[in-house]
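Entry 14. Ran structure prediction on the chain below.
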Amino acid sequence: MSTELWYTERYEEHGAALSLKVREVLHREQSPYQTIEIFETEHFGTLMTLDGLVMLTDRDNFLYHEMMTHPALFTHPDPKRVLIIGGGDCGTLREVLRHPTVELAEQVELDERVTRVAERFFPLLCERNDDARARFHFQDGIAWVEHAKAGSYDLIIVDSTDPVGPAAGLFAEEFYAACWRALGEQGVLVAQSESPLLHANLIRQCQRRMRGAGFDSVDTIYFPQFAYPSGWWSATLARKGIARDAFRREDAEQMSGLQYYHAEMQAAAMVAPAFLLPTS
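Output, structure tokens:
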């Protein structure tokens, strides 16, 4: 009889699944909001799941965190004040704080336990948590944006889980409109928008709702992500008062220490597959 242990996340709606070979279970707890589990895998390092859904692994999280942050940050002419909604594992925060223009990065995460568990098991992702520019708020992100002063932020990053339960409101046009108001005259919103292959309708919906909320131009960023459904992921970026081709190329070319994003990726990642091109 096999004694191998595998972690499997099933995508029942699509008749598919992801499996990772596990060496041991490192941690399991029930927070006030969800079940948090940490596994040591055979080839993908440490794995975090929330309510049985993969959040990140050591091996491939750089893809997500770099593409959720750097394209948006290099789109803004001078990003100083950044708001992160969600992002409890702090990988997005780490990438934001690579940018010397950033003076304040506020992270609003509902479940504090996700951050505390990440600090223990993903220390590299959390290495900038003590940065003087970082601020942590453990509360509801939708309410935070609704109560933010108009023009408070240059960039808002919505690093959310799937659009179910408490996260569903983060995909609503009303939330995007609140983000538009909270952004300055020149502002950028970027939000994770699921798999192009499995959730094309959701991506179209995000684009439509962001435009409906008042954003001038909207593009989706595409990138590989092994540990997420279909292995292909996206983030949708909306601009307020910024030209569609805005890009601080020289600054992007000087960015070092990254594993996926580079200056040439900025435009390439926004090339949509044929089935997601706008229809007349």
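The helical segments are 61-75, 91-96, 112-121, 141-147, 173-182, 200-212, 249-254, 265-268. Will compare against last week's run tomorrow.
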